[in-house]
Amino acid sequence: MNKFSRDFVFGTGTSAYQIEGAAFEDGKTASIWDTYCSISGNVFRDQSGDIACEHYYRYKEDVQLLKNLGVDSYRFSVSWPRIFPERGEVNKKGIKFYVDLVDELIRNNIKPMVTLYHWDLPQWAYDLGGWLNRDIAVWFEEYARVMFEALGEKVTLWATHNEPFCVSILGYLKGLHAPGHKDLKEALTASHNIFLSHGAAVKAFRSFNFKDSKIGITLNLSPGYPLEQTSENIELAKRADGFVDRWFMDPLFKGSYPVDMVKIYESKIGKLDFIKTGDLEIITEPMDFLGVNFYARNMVKPSQEGLLGYVGVGEKMPQTQEEWDTYPEILFKLLMNIKNEYTSLPIYITENGLALEGYKDDAGDDEKFGTIITSANDIDFVAEDGRVHDEARILYVYNCLKQCLKFIESGGELRGYYLWSLMDNFEWALGYSKRFGITYVNFETQERIIKDSGYWYKKVIESRTLQPKL
Ligand code: FCB
Is the distance from CB of 47 to CB of 453 less than 8 angstroms? Predict the structure, then answer.
């Protein structure tokens, strides 16, 4: 089989903080990302999402971009502090922005997919303890209800959270994302409370009795792989899988945390006493779909420097043809593993894509955030002919989509694929140094230029078939 069906959903994705800009307009207050970016040294070149792609003002133009690309659906997120600038205070102007965006999408025949939490926690919620305070499940549910009420069934797919791993582990253990903490117990508490808030929101959603709207969650999954085939390496790869994937999949689908990981964590921080009786029933509230974000595998080797006895190797994204036959294959295995081990729920790939470097200058030498530019092919730039020839991205996406087809052929319920991202944007701590878009954004003029990958994707969507080249 080499054809996607007509009802397979092809989309692209973005998130509020990464594209909207208008950081303090129309009543919006600070999120933890506004705060984090304002502290020098946290983000590449001290950049921020203050302006980003100015999507808040240009959303109509961006919907036309989506229309030109021919996508069936668009995944975006809502900025919680736009809706609740303060505890218990609803901001009508914030709601209006998303109502207008959704209406504009529907007018253009594009199905909205909304993520409620894509990392921009209101600062007020953080000041009350943020994800470390169990009460956050109540605040989140309140926020979710306001959005369900405002957008309801116009939204085809709702996701409660995007990548709880990144929120908890990158934000509370590794200090790489807002709020920049470095504490294992905090990270595990945060992930648990995220799940409680998820369960509460799913339950609230059901009380609306929507017929045409579904709800799920998006996880980033990155299977562990041993660098060498020794029993020690293999064991550590399993642990790495426990750390990134199983810790998040098991509670949702098995109603328990993985025993091997609980043991390891308890040996480090004592009893996981933030898990209370009855919590897992809340967390396993039945959903309608699982969203999977897939970027790379998690290859590991033993090292005492790592918290869990291993370190990741080859953390850089696969950027060139060299790696293309290896990585995408993992996507098929990952999807089969979900199907065989966890759930028969429909799956959507809610993110997949490739970063190329954002700068042609010496940005690559930056010590903390540095990524060395290895060849001209690693850079997204506008060529003399006015186009962006991002062949590496086309090839990568092509190979991942092939794995999707293989999964569907094997009986997998894969319903859709959202390419990350609609356009270049603020890549969190890496600022604007990485471009993930299928549309190039000139951040000085805000001009958008569809890249070759965008034109290629348009052809895929129209024809439902795959070619490795434009
Ligand atoms: C994911 C995030 C998304 C984007 C991509 C590249 O972890 O969900 O916002 O930054 O990575």
Answer: no
Interacting residues of 401 by C-beta distance below 8 A, sequence separation 6+: 417, 460, 466
pLDDT digits (tens, 9 = 90+) for 45-101: 999 999 999 999 999 999 999 999 999 999 999 999 999 999 999 999 999 999 999
- Name the residue ranges covered by the structural domains of the chain: 9-463
The topology (CATH level 3) of 9-463 is TIM Barrel (3.20.20)
Task: Find the length of the chain.
Answer: 470
Q: How far is the CA of 278 from the centre of ligand 1 (A)?
A: 32
Decide whether any atom of ligand 1 lies within 6 Å of the 16 Cβ. no
How far is ligand 1, taken at its centre, from the CA of residue 95, in Å?
Answer: 24
Distance between CA atoms of residues 262 and 252, nearest Å: 16
Question: Closest ligand 1 atom to the C-alpha of 427?
Answer: 10
The catalytic residue positions are 163, 351
Beta strands in 133-260 (DSSP E): 157-162, 214-220, 224-226
Atom of ligand 1 nearest to the CA of 166: 7
CB contact at 8 A, 163 and 218: yes
- Ranges of residues in the chain with a pLDDT under 50 are 315-326, 363-364, 372-374
pLDDT at 154: 98
What is the helix, strand, coil percentage profile of the chain, to 5? 45, 15, 40
Ligand 1 center–CA 422 separation, angstroms: 12
